[in-house]
Structure formats: structure tokens, C-alpha cells
Amino acid sequence: MSADLTSRKRTPGSYVRFLLAAAPWVGLLGLTPFVNRVEPFVLGLPFLLFWIVLWVVLTSVCMGIVYWTDPVNRGGGER
């Protein structure tokens, strides 16, 4: 392993990546009881179903941003 993960320094960017990684968990599990309603309909879906689908899409976006901003993934192909 070229980089020891325990010796990496914490940077402000690492905290942002952590918050982006935690956002889907909070959105799906933490906020679902507060949006648990059928109406209003959004795009023809009950609001709760729309909320879940929205967070599935946002999870992919958040994880993509975390991946592209993590300096470990900029190694240039070396392993």
C-alpha cells in the first residue's frame, strides 16, 4: 500500500467529504419521519416515495463528489 490511511492529515476538505457522505444517511433515515405524508404529489408520486427516489439520486451525486475530491483517488494509476 503506497499511502498509509492512518497517517493522513485531516484537512478542511476531509470534513466536507465526511459531511457529503453523511448527508444521504441523514436524509433517508433521519428526515423520513418528518416527510412521511402522501400529499402533495410530486411528479405523480406521493411525497414520501418522491423523497426516497430523490435521495437515491442524491446519494450517487454525493458519493461521486466524494470520490472525485478525495486525494487518494488522484494517484495516477499506481497501486
TrEMBL record:
Output the superkingdom of the source species. Bacteria
Per UniProt, the keywords (alphabetical) are:
Membrane, Transmembrane, Transmembrane helix
Q: Does the keyword Transmembrane helix apply?
A: yes
> What residue intervals traverse the membrane?
15-35, 47-69
Please tell me whether the keyword Transmembrane is annotated for this protein.
Answer: yes
Q: InterPro entries, from UniProt?
A: DUF3311 (IPR021741)
Protein name according to UniProt: DUF3311 domain-containing protein
